[in-house]
What we know:
Elements: H1 4-9, E1 17-20, E2 24-28, E3 36-42, H2 57-73, E4 80-83, H3 87-90, E5 99-103
The structure holds adenosine monophosphate and zinc ion.
The site of zinc ion (ZN) has 5 residues, from helix 1.
Amino acid sequence: MDCVFCKIVEKEIPSEIIYEDERVIAFEDLNPEAPTHFLVIPKKHISSTWELEKEDSELIGHIIYIGSKIAREKGLEEGYRIVNNCGEQGGQTVDHIHFHILGGRNLQWPPG
Ligand code: AMP
Ligand code: ZN
C-alpha cells in the first residue's frame, strides 16, 4: 500500500521515532507547528476516525495514553493539545489515522 505512515512503521522511510511498541509508534512531525509536535499512530493501517470499528476503541485509548505519557516526558505540564484531523474538511492530508500532540506555546482556539 502506498501509505507514507505505513512506510514509517515498516522503517522504509526515515523518521525520528520517539516511542514504539507492538501496536503503536510515535515520531516527530516533519513540519512542526509548535515547539513540541509529534504524532502517534497505530501500526495497523486505519484511514481515519471515520473508518473506526468498535474493536479499535482500546487501540485509540492506548494512543491517547501514550501521547499523554510522552507529553509528560517532554515537560508539557503547562498544557498541550491532542488533535485528530478527519477527512478533507477536517484538514487531513495523510490517510493513515494519526493524533497530533502539540505544545510548548500558547495555542489558539478556535482553530482556523
Ligand atoms: P494531517 O494534516 O492531520 O493529515 O497531518 C499530517 C501530518 O503529517 C502533518 O503535520 C505533516 O507535517 C506530517 N508528515 C507528513 N509526512 C511526514 C513524514 N514523512 N514524517 C513525519 N511527519 C510527516
Ligand atoms: Zn498506512
